[in-house]
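Exercise: predict the fold of this chain.
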Amino acid sequence: QPQLVESGGGLVQAGGSLRLSCAASQSMYRMGWYRQAPGKQRELVALITDGFGTEYVDSVKDRFTLSRDNAKNTVALNMNSLKPEDTAVYYCYAKATSWALREYWGQGTQVTVSS
């Protein structure tokens, strides 16, 4: 069972920045982050493939940047200009291959943006 270990998160004022990191125990085709705010469904934040193709939810474009280090099986989400509506539990996500059905999740890390 591959493991995803998250780090980062915390409390920040609106307009501030945070960095989330996730390390996988094996190489993964696609990695990234989802988030879930109280009372809402889990939503995609950003994903990146091992070829460095990225996708972002519209609400974070131009504020968040997702990068990865294939040699270390890690991804990092740099979050700038944070807004209170970014407050959520952020979950690292991974998929081993493009054709795999199974998905892997981290334990979640809280991000709280105060106004």
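Check your answer against the key: The mean pLDDT is 96.
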